[in-house]
Each structure stands twice: as C-alpha cells, then as structure tokens.
C-alpha cells in the first residue's frame, strides 16, 4: 500500500514546517487529491491514523479535499472539468492536457505552540 509511504512523506514535510516555525505540535494537515493521483483517500486516511502516533502528531487531523479533474484543450484552449474520464474537448472534440487533478498536494499545515491560543498556518 503506497499510501503509507505518502503519509510518511507528508509527516516529514509537516515536521519540517513545525521545526521551522518552532511550534510544539501539528494540529492539522490539509491535502488535495485529484482523481488521477493514484491515491485512494480512504486508504490515505487509514494510513495517517496508523502512522501519526508520535507526540507532535497525536491529535493531528488529516483533511482531504478532493479536487476535480480539469483540462485545457490543445486546439481551442478552453478550460473545463472532465467528466467520466472523457479526455476530449467538449467544444471541438480535440485532445486535452490535464492541468489539475492528477496530483496529491500538501496545501497547509496548522501548528500549535506552547501557548494554546496561538495557531500558525502555512501554505
């Protein structure tokens, strides 16, 4: 299950951000997942629950935002959402380039310092 290695990488990135901002712990990790990313959101969430057991992550939440598959036509340059994995322009029928929806992306990390009222967010 490659979701475990993806979560390990997310935790490493979040910990680096936590150290950079001298925060006590990570409260939230937000990611975006596209339908062509090859990542199953439920498996990613399950792997996160299993692996986020260190003190700095013990109460952290993983927020998963699923994004639409967006393409741009190679001929008419129209941008549109792809439905039913039909990779042709809805207007002219030509080929397209995917411009969003084929990635897993770290969007933000919410941090907590020693003071409970202080929360930092980074993008």
TrEMBL record:
Binding positions for Zn(2+) per the UniProt entry: 73, 76, 89, 92
Gene3D superfamilies found in the cross-reference section: 3.30.2320.80
GO MF annotation, one: nickel cation binding
Pfam families on file: HypA
Keyword match Protein transport: no
InterPro entries: HypA/HybF
The keyword Phosphoprotein belongs to this UniProt entry's keyword annotation: no
Top-level taxon: Bacteria
Keywords: Metal-binding, Nickel, Zinc
Family: Belongs to the HypA/HybF family.
HAMAP family cross-referenced by the UniProt entry: HypA_HybF
Name of the protein in its database record: Hydrogenase maturation factor HypA
């Amino acid at each position: 299950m490659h979701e475990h290695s993806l979560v390990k990488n997310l935790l490493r990135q979040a910990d680096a951000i936590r150290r950079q901002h001298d925060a006590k712990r990570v409260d939230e990790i937000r990611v975006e997942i596209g339908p062509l990313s090859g990542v199953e959101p439920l498996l990613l969430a399950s792997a996160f629950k299993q692996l986020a057991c260190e003190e700095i992550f013990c109460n952290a939440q993983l927020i998963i935002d699923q994004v639409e598959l967006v393409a741009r036509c190679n001929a008419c340059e129209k941008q549109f959402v792809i439905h039913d994995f039909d990779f042709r322009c809805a207007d002219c029928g030509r080929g397209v380039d995917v411009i969003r929806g084929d990635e897993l992306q770290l969007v933000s990390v919410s941090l907590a310092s020693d003071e409970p009222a202080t929360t930092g967010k980074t993008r």
